[in-house]
């Protein structure tokens, strides 16, 4: 759980998302007033791409979609959605294995179906086949659907020569307690939305469209703070109560694309403008964590719990002073503090764009919560992003006794699909 962390729910950084205002701008780039205004003549709410956002004409006198429900993310683009999209309130992660006998042809047909389903649902339209009506009353609600390929996908489709070197299996780490049945997979899908029913609707549609081509390997559910839940835009908190997301790379930074996305002329060519995602289910040992005093928790992290400011002083965004000492000569930010260890300047510049969800899967027979973080981080090369940071955490992170890595996956996420294309087409038809 690195300090260079989560895309914040709603921050003043317009490169990632719009600040809260009386007239919020949806992610699709059209204002709520313009979006809702299109409903007047036809009864349909239209998004920036002209797709129907409502399933049917609104009844006379009905309340129009709220700004939350009307926000739309475009499916087609340079990069896939769900990477730099602001964090959503609800998320589902699901991995599939290709069915026995399914190969490249079946995979191509599947990705074609999935891409069309994602495009329709992200525009607020019903699925093309057998829509369940679960999200009939809702707008697109910032829905995103993102697709990736696992290491095993290439052998099953006869595309071993196209498997990127960056997709080599991750090394073992000392904090790993991995359940192989909930790790890896041939195909990975990330779903996010600001409405739980919209997110589930997409999950069910994707699972149904898999048909006989692919079988669910594992599936996980997550959540974040809902947009507008705080009095003003602020960094989110994790289930340990810590402000989590202060040092995330931002698209406004000059080296953002180099760190997060494969260059247009990169190798392999089908990964141009794509990214690599590391997915980890990290259980938080909350009973142990909550036995610590607030001061002890702050020492573990290296930041104040109240506002996320470094223990060396200032505000949340103040640069951490790693050399500052107290009156007794002790470092104010302990040498093994999580925020110190994960700083990019302490790891050769290694950076990740973290965009996780919290999770809670109930309690065990002793009343211990099964809760924590669905860690999701994006980088142009995991061997230069996730791996060196995790290796350093393995060597002495003060947070390690309070977390356990229980599942893991690494996936190649190709660039976005152009109009008329499906995700992965350049790989599967190249």
Entry summary:
The chain is α+β, with helices and mostly antiparallel strands. Helix content is 20%, strand content 17%.
What can you see in these coordinates?
The chain crosses the membrane at residues 35-58. A hairpin with a 5-residue loop joins strand 7 and strand 8. The strands form two sheets. Strands 5, 6, 7, 8 and 9 form a five-stranded antiparallel beta sheet that branches. This protein has a four-stranded antiparallel beta sheet with strand order 2-3-1-4. The longest helix is centred in the N-terminal third of the chain and has 19 residues, at 104-122. It is 20% helix and 17% strand. The chain has one domain (71-428). It contains twelve helices and nine strands. The model is unreliable at 8-63 (pLDDT under 50).
């Amino acid at each position: 759980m690195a300090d260079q962390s989560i895309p914040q729910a709603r921050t003043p950084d317009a490169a990632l998302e719009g600040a809260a205002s009386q007239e919020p701008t949806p992610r699709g780039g059209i204002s709520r007033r313009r979006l809702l205004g299109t409903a007047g003549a036809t009864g349909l709410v239209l998004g920036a791409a002209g797709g129907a956002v409502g399933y049917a004409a609104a009844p006379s006198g009905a309340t129009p979609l709220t700004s939350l429900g009307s926000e739309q993310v475009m499916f087609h683009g340079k990069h896939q959605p769900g990477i730099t999209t602001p964090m959503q309130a609800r998320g589902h992660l699901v991995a599939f294995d290709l069915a026995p006998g399914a190969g490249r042809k079946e995979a191509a047909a599947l990705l074609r179906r999935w891409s069309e389903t994602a495009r329709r649902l992200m525009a607020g339209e019903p699925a093309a086949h057998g829509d369940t009506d679960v999200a009939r009353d809702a707008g697109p609600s910032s829905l995103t659907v993102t697709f990736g390929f696992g290491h095993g996908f290439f052998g099953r489709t006869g595309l071993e020569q196209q498997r990127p070197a960056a997709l080599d299996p991750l090394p073992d780490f000392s904090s790993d307690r991995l359940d192989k049945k909930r790790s890896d997979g041939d195909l990975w899908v990330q779903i996010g939305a600001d409405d739980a029913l919209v997110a589930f609707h997409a999950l069910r549609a994707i699972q149904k469209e898999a048909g006989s081509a692919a079988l669910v390997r594992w599936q996980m559910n997550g959540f974040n703070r809902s947009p507008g839940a705080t009095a003003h835009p602020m960094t989110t908190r994790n289930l340990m109560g810590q402000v989590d997301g202060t040092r995330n790379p931002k698209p406004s930074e000059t080296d953002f694309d180099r760190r997060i996305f494969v260059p247009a002329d990169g190798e392999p060519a089908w990964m141009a403008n794509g990214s690599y995602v590391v997915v980890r289910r990290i259980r938080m040992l909350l009973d142990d964590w909550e036995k610590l005093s607030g001061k002890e928790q702050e020492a573990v992290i290296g930041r104040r719990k109240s506002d996320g400011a470094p223990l060396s002083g200032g505000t949340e965004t103040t640069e951490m002073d790693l050399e500052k000492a107290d009156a007794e000569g002790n470092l104010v930010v302990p040498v093994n503090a999580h925020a110190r260890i994960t700083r990019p300047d302490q790891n050769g510049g290694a950076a990740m764009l973290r965009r996780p969800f919290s999770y809670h899967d109930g309690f065990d027979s002793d009343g211990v919560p099964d809760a924590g973080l669905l860690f999701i981080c994006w980088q142009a090369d995991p061997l230069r992003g996730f791996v060196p940071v995790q290796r350093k955490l393995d060597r002495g992170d003060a947070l390690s006794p309070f977390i356990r890595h229980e599942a893991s996956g690494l996936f190649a996420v190709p660039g976005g699909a152009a109009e008329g294309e499906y995700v992965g087409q350049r790989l599967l038809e190249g």
